[in-house]
Design brief:
CATH class of the largest domain: Mainly Beta
Order of helices and strands: EEHHEEHEEEEEEHHHHHHHHH
Region (Disordered): 177-199, 236-270
Biased composition (Low complexity): 251-265
Number of strands: 10
Shape: globular
Radius of gyration: 23 Å
CATH architecture of the largest domain: Roll
Distance between the termini: 41 Å
Oligomer: single chain
Strand content: 15-25%
Protein name: Lon N-terminal domain-containing protein
CATH superfamily of the largest domain: LON domain-like
InterPro entries: Lon_prtase_N, Lon_prtase_N_sf
Number of helices: 12
CATH topology of the largest domain: Archaeosine Trna-guanine Transglycosylase, Chain: A, domain 4
Signal peptide: 1-24
Structural class: alpha+beta
Helix content: 25-40%
Number of domains: 2
Strand order of the largest sheet: 3-5-8-9-10
Length: 390
Amino acid sequence: MILHNTSSSRWTAVLLTMASAAVAFSPTHVSLCITHTHQQLHRHALRSSESNTNEFDDFADMRSTSFLSNENSDSINKANSEDDPFLSSLRSRLDQVEQSSTALPLMILDTMLPRQILHIQIQHPTLKKLMKHRVAMETPTLGMLGIARVPGVGGSSGGGMTIPLKTGVEVEIIQMEPADGAPKGTVTTGGSTGGSSEEEAWNISLRAIRRFEIDGEVAKTEEGWTEARVQFLDSAQEEEKEVQQFSKPNSFQSSDASITASSKSDPASIGDRLSVARAISKSKQFTQPNMNMNGSSLVDRWIELARENERTPGQIDTLLKQLGDIPEEHEPTERALWIGALINPLPSLGQAMEIRPQLLVSKKAEERVEVALEAILRSIRHMDGSARMW
């Protein structure tokens, strides 16, 4: 059964956006251990079947002292707002707030990037209850978090520990059905089932839509799953903010003295003024003809080699249909995320470094593009045999 996405409920997160809470994660930057294999999940069992479907067995234990509960604001009459410029402006601003911040249930399972589709098999009663609850919503979505490894922290062996990422993706439930395909236990869009067996497994398909960052308390709900308030991230707005940060009035002075003073107060500021422009320039390399690739672009060459190394027939063609066309050159962050979703597909192809966590936690477009460029180049060299990665 395919679940179609509809417009989200309006005004349900207005009061939430008026509040603030300390983030229940350490602000310390985490070092990511990049590997070609799937990450080991803390307190989870994630195993692959012959059909490349994963089974999720448990929830992560995310604890917090408080959580900002979702509250409904007073409704605003649409007809009146259309006649009143003030109410019309208020409605527009509240729409923007609701679109950027909301409360989401969280799953800690696998790092995903926008456009990716993950197929999982679930049997955990709480997770099944969560799925039934979410498909009853107008927009059946939840938050997906991956994990990062912090080397040398925790454990006597010094092997490090894993912690949930603070940045993840909103995923839409696009398919839910019994694992055996039988009518018994089929879940409808209203959340009802045709059976009551707790042992019945469900096949779930999740599509990653957009990135978010946790900006509120994280807590277990009475129903048993984890929720948090999140701030949705927009690539274009992030890049615009990068530019504006170093383009304030009087920030560009013609005198050497003012430039020197600026560089002393912030040595990285001069270089950062052009970081987005450099990101755009570097992102062009993904699709430009490359003489080292016999005139093919990096993307075309990678796809050519990946088809020769795909694990199942048609894997790459299916992947390309899911991802769609590569974003335009003037969208460097989206291009980097697209490349990450291409070379780290679900299920894994095993021919590239794992860069999805690093793409999510990077704060600048140029950083993301550089990570994606290095990874696709190394993947190409690995697949053509010129420089093996392992």
